[in-house]
Amino acid sequence: MTAPKLLVIQPDESDPIGPLGDWLTEAGAELDIRLPPEQGLPADLDGYAGVVCLGGGMGANDDVAHPWLADVRKLLSKAASARIPTLAICLGGQLLAVALGGGVATGDQGPEVGPGLVSKKDAAWTDPLFADLPLMQDVLQFHNDAITRLPAGAELLASSPRYANQAFRFDRCAYGVQFHIETTPDVVLDWARQSPEMAELTRPEVLTQENLARVHADITETWRPFAHRFVRLVSGDLAPAADRQRTLPMA
């Protein structure tokens, strides 16, 4: 069988695909990683079975400084419209939300920084990718902006006390998450050095190599099988979410 090819959009050098790339390839996927604007994005998604969009330090609407973000949003919209399985992470999730008519703004509860937990919502229990996750999932947070409004018709899959829109699915197979699952301790420590004002918002013992190693072991346990399920979804071995049933009001 031919390996399913995934377009991986990496908006920022500081957020590589990391362990997530290993999990996707060990499940049988082939990755085509593009780092715009140096590496151009394809005009369409012919030949790609799925799309992954990673995080970055810019804002989802920061087109003045990063005009190529419009092309990323356009590709994400095309993928969702064509029902090409999509996994969009942190900035990627925000870009997906905006591309589909949702909203992103500076978080009114302040930045989320460091290890955290998100909890499954009702729709997650029947979702192909989220159903097998535990009720509470270990994640890594590092963001100023937040998804303030989901796209119309999107299903909320995970929340946290400070920011409700932690994970969502649009239509049958376009997924956006606010948190990170692709990081390593070294990547997080680099972010902390680059953004000391954000790192100061959490306790000093949280952002240590030892603690982050423990956290990432827990992230691997939870999200490696999730990445494998995403490849199964891309390959057609796992059925996408069912179409939402539209009910009419009683006469």
Automatic annotation (TrEMBL):
<feature type="domain" description="Glutamine amidotransferase">
    <location>
        <begin position="52"/>
        <end position="185"/>
    </location>
</feature>
<dbReference type="InterPro" id="IPR017926">
    <property type="entry name" value="GATASE"/>
</dbReference>
<dbReference type="Pfam" id="PF00117">
    <property type="entry name" value="GATase"/>
</dbReference>
<dbReference type="InterPro" id="IPR029062">
    <property type="entry name" value="Class_I_gatase-like"/>
</dbReference>
<keyword id="KW-0315">Glutamine amidotransferase</keyword>
<dbReference type="InterPro" id="IPR044992">
    <property type="entry name" value="ChyE-like"/>
</dbReference>
<protein>
    <submittedName>
        <fullName>Glutamine amidotransferase</fullName>
    </submittedName>
</protein>
